[in-house]
UniProtKB/TrEMBL annotation:
Organism expressing this protein natively: Candidatus Cryptobacteroides excrementavium
Superkingdom of this protein's organism: Bacteria
A GO CC term assigned to this protein in UniProt: plasma membrane
Keyword terms, alphabetized: Membrane, Transmembrane, Transmembrane helix
Residues spanning the membrane: 17-39, 66-84, 96-117, 138-155, 161-188
Name of this chain's protein: Mechanosensitive ion channel
MF term (GO), any: mechanosensitive monoatomic ion channel activity
Length: 383
C-alpha cells in the first residue's frame, strides 16, 4: 500500500491529470452503457412479472438517476488517491462533484417518490385518497435537505450545525412556507377523514364551486365546474369552510327527486257516486276505502303514488310519498318525493321530468287543475 502511494506521488502532474480524465470518461461510459443496456433489460423483465410496481420503477427516471451517480462517486473516491496533496483547485473540484452528487441524489429521491405516487394511484386502497399533496410535501423536504447539504459543502459546515442555525429562524421559515404547511395539514385532514377524493362532485357556493374535483395538490384543489370553468382553492379552505360532497348520493341506491305541483284549491271537491265507483275499480285504488264524500284529491294522490312506484326507473325500496304542503295563495302544493335509480344528472332529470309530466296530464281525469297565475291573454278573451 505504501509502495502504491509512493508511486502515485512520483507520478507527474500531467500523468495524474490524464489518469483522472480517463477515470471520468470510463465512469461516464459505464453510466451511458447502463442507461442504454440495463434499463431496457430491466423494463422487459419487469413487464414479464405479475406485479405492476416494478413497471413504474423501471419506466420512471429512478434507474437513470441511480446510474448517473456512478461518475461523480467514482471520481470522488479516486481524487484523494491521485492528488493526495491538498490544493485549492482540488478542493474546488471536490466541492463541485459533491454538489453534483447531492443534486443527482435529490433527483433520484424525487423520482422514487413520483413512482410511489403512481403506484399508490393504482392501489385499491389509496387510489381514491388525495395523496398527491403528501408526496409533493415529501419532495419539498427532499429539496430543502439538498439545499442545506449544498450550503454545508460550500461553507464547509456540518449538516447539524446548519439545522441548528435554521432553528433560530423558524418563524421566518414558517412565514415563507405558510401556505405549504397549511396545505399539508389540510391534505392530511382531508385524506384521514375521507372528506374529499378526486372525481367527487362538490358544491361550495361561497367560492362559486359546483363540479367535479380533478386534482388535489399540496397548494390547490382544482374543480371543473359543470359549465367547464375551472376553480382552484387552497386545501385549507375546504377544511375551514363547509362544502357539500355528493359522493354519498352517487354511492347510494338512488338520487332524490322533490317536485311540488300546485293544485287550484277551487277544483278540489267531493266525487260523485259514479266517479267514486269508476275510480275504485282501478288498480291504484286498492286499499282505499271508498265512501260517500270521497275527495277527488285523495284519488289523485293514490294514482300519482302508484304511477311513481310502478315506474321501472324509480327505486321503490327507498322513501316514496305524495304529500300535501302548507296551502299558499298560489294553491295547495302537492309534493312528489321519490328516488330515481339513475344517479347521473342527465338521466335523473329526464326520469323526473317524465314522471311530473305524466302526473300533470292525469289531473283533468280527476277534475283537478294546476294553479297558474293569470296572464294578459287570460284577460283578453283569446282562446
Amino acid at each position: 500500500m505504501e509502495q502504491n502511494t509512493l508511486e502515485i506521488f512520483e507520478m507527474t502532474i500531467q500523468t495524474r491529470i490524464i489518469v483522472s480524465c480517463a477515470i471520468v470518461l470510463l465512469a461516464y461510459l459505464v453510466d451511458f452503457l447502463c442507461c442504454r443496456l440495463l434499463i431496457p433489460l430491466a423494463r422487459r423483465l419487469a413487464a414479464k412479472t405479475a406485479y405492476t410496481w416494478d413497471n413504474y420503477i423501471t419506466d420512471s427516471n429512478v434507474l437513470r438517476h441511480a446510474f448517473h451517480l456512478i461518475p461523480p462517486v467514482t471520481f470522488l473516491v479516486a481524487l484523494p488517491l491521485l492528488f493526495p496533496e491538498t490544493e485549492q483547485w482540488t478542493i474546488l473540484l471536490s466541492k463541485g462533484f459533491s454538489i453534483y452528487i447531492i443534486v443527482v441524489a435529490c433527483s433520484l429521491a424525487c423520482a422514487f417518490v413520483s413512482s410511489l405516487y403512481a403506484i399508490s394511484s393504482e392501489s385499491e386502497v389509496l387510489k381514491d385518497k388525495p395523496m398527491k399533496g403528501v408526496y409533493q410535501m415529501v419532495k419539498v423536504l427532499i429539496v430543502c435537505v439538498g439545499i442545506v447539504l449544498t450550503i454545508g459543502v460550500l461553507i464547509e459546515k456540518d449538516f447539524t450545525t446548519l439545522l441548528a442555525g435554521l432553528g433560530a429562524s423558524a418563524a421566518v421559515l414558517m412565514l415563507i412556507f405558510k401556505d405549504t404547511i397549511l396545505g399539508l395539514v389540510a391534505g392530511v385532514q382531508l385524506s384521514a377523514h375521507d372528506m374529499l377524493r378526486p372525481g367527487d362532485w362538490i358544491m361550495m357556493d361561497k367560492h362559486g364551486i359546483n363540479g367535479e374535483v380533478e386534482e388535489v395538490t399540496l397548494n390547490t384543489v382544482k374543480v371543473r365546474n359543470w359549465d367547464n370553468t375551472i376553480t382552484t382553492v387552497p386545501p385549507y379552505t375546504l377544511v375551514s369552510d363547509s362544502f357539500k360532497n355528493w359522493r354519498a348520493m352517487r354511492e347510494s341506491a338512488g338520487r332524490r327527486v322533490t317536485r311540488a305541483i300546485r293544485i287550484d284549491i277551487n277544483t278540489i271537491r267531493t266525487c260523485t257516486p259514479e266517479e267514486s265507483a269508476t275510480f275504485s275499480r282501478q288498480e291504484w285504488a286498492k286499499g282505499i276505502q271508498t265512501e260517500t264524500g270521497t275527495v277527488n284529491l285523495k284519488f289523485f294522490r293514490a294514482a300519482a303514488e302508484y304511477r311513481i312506484r310502478t315506474n321501472p326507473d324509480v327505486n321503490a325500496d327507498l322513501m316514496l310519498l305524495v304529500r300535501q304542503l302548507e296551502p299558499t295563495p298560489e294553491g295547495l302544493p302537492l309534493q312528489l318525493y321519490f328516488f330515481t335509480k339513475a344517479k347521473d344528472w342527465v338521466t335523473h332529470e329526464r326520469v323526473a321530468a317524465d314522471i311530473v309530466e305524466e302526473i300533470l296530464a292525469m289531473m283533468p281525469e280527476f277534475g283537478l287543475r294546476a294553479y297558474q297565475k293569470p296572464s294578459g291573454m287570460d284577460f283578453s278573451g283569446y282562446n
